[in-house]
Amino acid sequence: MTLPAESKAALRSRLRAELKALAADARASASAGLCARVRNSSAWQNARAVLLFFPVPSEPDIAPLLADALAAGKLLALPRFDPAANAYEAVRVIDPVRELVIGPFQVHEPVAACPVVALNRLDLALVPGLGFDARGHRLGRGKGHYDRLLAGFTGMKIGVAFDFQIVTEVPREPHDIALDAVVTPTRWLQARSD
Questions:
Q1: pTM of the predicted model, to two decimals?
Q2: End-to-end CA distance of the chain
Q3: Neighbouring residues of 80: CB distance < 8 A, sequence distance ≥ 6
Q4: Domains of the chain with bracketed CATH
Q5: Better-scored residue on pLDDT, 87 or 115
Q6: pLDDT tens-digit profile of 5-64?
Q7: Nearest to 39, CA basis, from 143, 161, 126
Q8: Residue from 37, 98, 99 nearest 62 by CA
Q9: Hey, which of 25, 51, 186, 190 would disulfide with 125, CB 3.0 to 4.6 Å?
């Protein structure tokens, strides 16, 4: 007998609890390993323009990659929420220290003066999530904002996660955008097709 897949709500609840329970030193060590794996990838090294995100405390800390992107001469974009469109847009950032503020969802995002970047100018996106599976399916926070942003993105989409965030199966809905790969501190998972 096949057991039904874990519901999105149950999976979100379980993964949020695991993220909350992760010790600060373990989080820092795993985040450093994940950043190193990204830096050493050909996807990162070949990208000229990247869409990153500023992590919330429960996510892998990829903040060092913002400075790395700028130091390497890459165009750096981060998501900014546009309340009028009820959607995120990609926005260019040159100085993350001065150009990021807390946005409507308590996430650091670019200030209003930062210019919007066309998604087709970006080669690579690092994508947050609560959970991922080997097919590149992503479990977000439930509002669908990232899926709407990624729907217009043509570059390589890579989920970033701690190892325990890789699950057997993420329940999918028609609007969910699949990723090309998922990177953790210990592995790079190239997405398998369904």
A1: 0.92
A2: 22
A3: 88, 89, 91, 103, 109, 110, 114
A4: 8-138+148-190 (3.40.50.10420)
A5: 115
A6: 568 889 999 999 999 999 999 999 999 999 999 999 999 999 999 999 999 999 999 999
A7: 126
A8: 37
A9: 51
